User: Fold these one by one.
Assistant:
Number 1:
Amino acid sequence: RLSITSTLRSQKKRKLSGWHFGVRVCAWTATTVGVMNTILLIAAAAKFPVLDGIGVAYEGSCEVVDHWTTWLHILINGLSSLLLSASNYTMQALAAPTRAEVDRAHAKGDWVDIGVASVRNLSRIKWLRIVLWWILAVSSVPIHLLYNSAAFKTIDGGNFSTKIPLVNPPSTVTPDDDEYYVTMPSDTSFLPSLQKWWGQNYDNETLVERLNNTDCINAYGTNFVTGRNHLLTITTETGDQAKNETLFMVEGTTDYYDSELRYRWMCENDYNSSHTFQLKCATSTLKKHVDNWTINGRKIDYCLSQITPSHCELQFSVQILVAVIVMNVLKSVAMFVTLYQQKDATLVTVGDAVASYLDQPDDLTKGRCLMSRKDIKSWKLNPNEKKPNTDPMPVTFYPEKTTWFFRAASKGRWITAFTLIISAIITTASLLGMGTSQLQGDGASPFRIGFGSIDSRAFISTELPESGASGLISSILLANLPQAIASFLYLLYNSLLSSMLLAKEWSSYALRRKPLRVSHPHGQQRSTYYLQLPLRYSAPLLLISATLHWMISQSIFLARINTYYDGNPTEGDDMSSVGYSCPPILVTMLIGIVLLFVALAMGFRKFGSQMPIASSCSVAIAAACHRPQDDADAAYLPVQWGEVESEREDEIGHCSFTSGPVLPLVEGRMY
């Protein structure tokens, strides 16, 4: 009975400590996110109309849609960052080796990583953990490629006509231009309905708004006009009475996907048919001389704007939400399987490894107490032989004057991480430069386009389809590709910080005596809920990651446009593209630069002791744990690393972790 009670207590303690507790939190976090997504999908699909997998949660004010999409994307990026962090934690726990797996690797002259996320370990651990690791890794890809486009806004790219004064059309106007320039009454075939409406309603303040020139330019100086329809520009100048001219010119706006500006008529004071379609129009310049706004020689006094309901929509994709939920379920299942099927004691933290080797020292590393990670090559007989060199190899201790945190991670890890991060920053800067140049060329102010705001001048030009389902899918994948890249860079950055903090923890054992930080404590050992990054590092990093993902979602995003004419949707004129916004691109780049300099600043920190840097190398860790014979319980007591009493008869000293007294190492002495 006592044995059963003791076992139950041990199991309960195991559940509430170490990586088991961490994975439990991760599993329930992933499950909670999945349940939230499922409830939102079911509720939205039941309440709102869905056509071809696209639901409309709201139609109306663009300000309301902007408000909801902003908060939804903050929520989405927060949840996706939680999933990424939970996956990373569980993947690191899965890749941690057991003592038996480490011993097998050492017997072959090989080594494994301990205490950090490791791809290297995948070929050296059991197949079930490999499968679970890959499920967590692969399921992250669709989430980051799709999740941010689960909810999106669609704006109204309405078509309307603009009546513009024109007295004497230039001789260069050809019959082909009649669609744009009409001298009354030579062609009235497509105007009677508009003439009738304006005649009946021009003074109706509920249907028509009088705009001064500045407001008129602001309202119609965009390719996507919402909440307004046809426009009448008014001049006090008279036309040619002999021709009975009262309406001087009519221009119908082009479709939204036309390469030209729909509001170029505002700048057509010097029209000729040879250059109209290449005309640029800077509304900022017009507003500087707004009192002299002139179109084809006629000074505009004010405008009359037809007021219509806004047709912006908050839409959601059923297929995307289903895909995200399926990937979410896979993650949750993999985490719970990890929790309940992983019974073997794995060496998750460096404390786990030290405790294991103090309890059962590794004979293959005996006599190499000053071994560091960089000495691993001397441990092998030669690269082709699958066995280690077990001969003792004393070395003379000459402490380095300064040991930087840079040494904690391998050169390959630093080069890979910094190359990719710097490449991402340079790419972001290039996109910002090209976007700024493109917008300035179109007469727009790059930094006045708001976060996530759709502007036809700020579209990424590609050869991808724009209409229908194919246009939507291709735009979603392109818009979210940076999200997947950012997630990968987060994992690299996390691994880099973990390596440096692991080495810091390792080095601290040469400065003072303290208990080992292990997954499942015994004796005076300390429990730990984190693997290597303490909460003071992991929490800010998670917050920065979520912020970065949200900034990316506002920098490059799905731009979806539906076209309306006289308040009615036009068939087949929907468009999906990828828009960009310069302000969040700049903020994203600055965040990347700050993270880069934080890593550099960490790298230039100094270790407090002269202890050889084992990093995450299992061989170097094992070599430092050959305790004195009479210190059998060292693993369960507070320990310190330093010179201990040597069992050798010669003058060669020995250093190790021990619960007994230690001395500082002597410069010039062999150990």
Number 2:
Amino acid sequence: MVPNDEIKARERFLQEAAHLLAVSSPTAAAFIGRAHHKFIEDAEIEIPSKEADAYRRSICNACGNIMIPGWSCKVSNHLPGEGPTRKDNKGFKKLPQLEKSIRYTCLMCHRETVQALRHKARRKNKKSAPVLDAAPVPTSNNPAKEVDNAPKTLNASSKQRQKARKGGLQAMLDKKKSQNSASGGLDLMDFAM
């Protein structure tokens, strides 16, 4: 019996080789993809459902073609109610179809792979606890004055910061001018008219 690590390594090698050759040699990639699919079946490797869906989208189960949308396969949406029709006594009648699905059509063997789209679980809105009627808070004139003073202090502090910033910039300009005049050399701006 072959150890589990060797089986996984061989499976991974076949998968990567098929994907590597998908564009440069589609026929060789399809052959390796088919060998990969057969190896998975023979070794009875269990694939988690999420990975199985991705596997079904990436490799055609019939011919092993690596399905690249627009290159080696065609992708189309299939909505409920667009199913095949059958003729009844009353005329044409659509067969019911329950879920939205996506169809992957292999362009090498024209086999269709249909995958149903899973519906997302709807989120339930949690209603907030009802607000209890609170007794009105007694108001007095003093808190109102404090509220009025708060915006003034905010504006005052922002004005002070602005003055300090302007003062800092002005000081930097003055310092640069004094350095230029102290150096006594000519600058490019001296020749500008």
Number 3:
Amino acid sequence: MKRLALLVLGLVLCACSNTHKEQNASIQLVEIYPQVQMLLAKKAAGDEEGAKQIHDFLNKMANQHIIDDTISLITRASVSGYELILPSQLEAERDSFVIISTLPRGIYNLGFIPQAKHFEFALSPNLNENGSEWNWEADALSREMEDFIHLLGGDKDAKIVFYDSGEHIFAPMGSAHVGLMWARHLGYKNLYRLVGGFEAWKGLKLPISTEVPHCCEM
């Protein structure tokens, strides 16, 4: 009986450990982000020994898939022409940003970063029937482009940050990435994506609001 109790306890602790790791994946991504930046810089400089040391350190901090996701996040931002911002940085400078949540409306209504406006996008870019890019109707889930431009505002130099859950980075790319690409396509210049997304924001116990901005009331 005692052995059975110990076995059950072990299984419970194992399950709790796995759940904890899953819940904190976005926070782990935020925590290793500076080190992954250093890793990529070492590789770009041809410093393989330095890169190996950082990679060995990273392996002690997070699972490989989280490291890979962080690399994908940084690489995609660089290639796509937008910046990345950590939750703590956004919280410190929140009043200087236009904040756009690209999460589904039902999730947004449950809580969002204070002052965040809402505009949902698809999880990955869609092609037109002829194979060309920039399929607004599919990417924006049939909402009007004028509504999107209205939320962003007329200042093309304004600092604008997009966030989704933070769960989709490699494939699919994430709705925040799709929104960012359209904002850039429309001429907005100072664009940011929130590292770790809303899951990291919540996990770090940063402020959450349910007071929907006037622009986004249903």
